[in-house]
Amino acid sequence: MAKNLRLKSARAAKDMSQKDLAEAVGVTRQTINAIETGDYNPTVRLCTAICRTLGKTLNDLFWEDDFYVN
Amino acid sequence: MAKNLRLKSARAAKDMSQKDLAEAVGVTRQTINAIETGDYNPTVRLCTAICRTLGKTLNDLFWEDDFYVN
DNA sequence: TCAATATGTCAAGTATATTTTACAAAAAGA
DNA sequence: TCTTTTTGTAAAATATACTTGACATATTGA
To answer: Is the pLDDT of residue A69 over 50?
Structure first.
C-alpha cells in the first residue's frame, strides 16, 4: 500500500495534527500515522469517521482508480 | 449498522450469489453475508475489492451521507 | 539556543475482523 | 414432490486492526 497523501493533504487543509485527527475520530495517533504512512488496512467505519471529520468522502480519500477503468 | 441493501442489489445486478462474490474477493461466504446483514465493519481493502468486482465505488456501496454516527 | 510540538517507528498487548465447521430453512429447478 | 442452491446464523479458532508505552528526530516558535 502506498502513502495516503490525499489524507495527509486533507488533514493539513483543516490545520489538524495527526493527534488532533486521532482524537476527533477516537483512535490513537499511531493509527492515523500508520494509515498515512500506508502500512495498513483500516476498517471502513474508521475511514468514514476520518472522512466526515475532514469534510471528504470515501472516494476522495480512500478510493484508487489507478487499476481501474470506468 | 443497517443492512447493506446497495451491496445486495449490486450483487444481484451481476447475478452473483454471496458465495460467488466471496470467492471473487477471497473471503468466505459468511463474511459477505455478515456485511450485507450489517453486523459488521469490514476493512477498506475488502470493501474496495468488493466494489471493483461489482463495478461500483466505495461511495456507491459504503458511504452514508444521511445519518451521522460513528 | 531552548522548549514544545509534530511526526515516524517499534514491541507487546487487546479487541475485533475473518475463518472454519456446522446446522437449518427458504427459494429455485426439475 | 425431491434435490440443489442460496441465505441466515452460531460457536470456536486464527489473523490482524488498533492500543499502549516508549524512544528518536525534525520542526516550529519564543
So the answer is: no
